[in-house]
DNA sequence: CAGCAAATTTGCGGGCTCCGCAAGTTTGCA
DNA sequence: TGCAAACTTGCGGAGCCCGCAAATTTGCTG
């Protein structure tokens, strides 16, 4: 990867980071594109070369991870059962459950929690993860030999994985005392794989 | 319901309908708020009294249905198993599967399909259904005796239902020959309830 | 290492969005 | 019938987002 592309990724990360930090500090509405650009040391116009909106910039960091789940899934042996492979893929991206892993400082998570409560970001989240989910749909279709145009199955699986990431992230922000995100993800995937049985009947 | 509220609902529906129709005709970017307002016979400023954006106006009609699933779920006897009750609730809102039900004209569905392919609307969709999903989460929590703040379960179920509506709607638009939306919804919910088993192993 | 082509950044301009505010209009009720 | 509450509307303004073209930076090649 040449200097050019490295610098681009660096700028993109700086913008996304600045956007998230400023939004946590001042609230979603209290930050303008101009400020984000200034914080990252580029012109406001350049901001829009990287992101179509400030919302997109804010969610980019998180979604960059989910985008790699499909890649990981493709590296798993096709002899593994689907849900085993899928769980492993998610683990590879988000980390293995480790109860001792410390969470980020409470000040930060409470700020992020407030942010994510904003509906604009929920929407942006899904919008941005649509690409990742499409990739995942394709990977699941290959692995299971289904046709994504005719069968809903691969899209339902991808949607379930996306929902798991979404719900687990929320729970992670809400958890008191803090819990490792990886454990929550594991749990959510397990419940999906079990068909979300009514806990009363267990 | 007084004349006042009836007129409000009428205006809201007219705006949403005008927004959808114009967007199908000219594409999402090719329609402005001014045109939508003119089409509905109100001032541009009034449009924003009803909807915060044109995207919100477009998806409102569809989401108005999903918003009532939680209400329906609450009317089902608590002796019914959760997934039975949930499927019934969805059926009550979206109709019972009827293979003979004719779909809308191909011209319209292809237009809507193009619209929904736009990521902006995907995002708006979820954003708008977040409220409905929160309601559904609460209803599921009551029924299953779980605590939505501590257990991910009710939120996972609500997310699954939302994903079912989403994926089934997509498939409905894509289906050729046309299929009834209700059948697809039924199918999607069934798959979720079964834990999305790998079709190879069936 | 000079110099060129391609990629990137930047400023400018413009159309559009969304909202607060206050004045005007309609509705429900007594 | 008349008044208070609710709704609509125009205005003004801050901000967003993008196309365009000029300026700058980078990677490559002779």
UniProtKB/TrEMBL annotation, chains A, B:
SUPFAM superfamilies: Homeodomain-like. It comes from the Bacteria. PROSITE patterns: HTH_TETR_1, HTH_TETR_2. Keywords: DNA-binding, Transcription, Transcription regulation. Residues 32-51 bind DNA. InterPro entries: DNA-bd_HTH_TetR-type_CS (IPR023772), Homeodomain-like_sf (IPR009057), HTH-type_TetR-like_transc_reg (IPR050109), HTH_TetR (IPR001647), MftR_C (IPR041347). Gene3D superfamilies: Homeodomain-like, Tetracycline Repressor, domain 2. Residues 9-69 form the HTH tetR-type domain. This is TetR family transcriptional regulator.
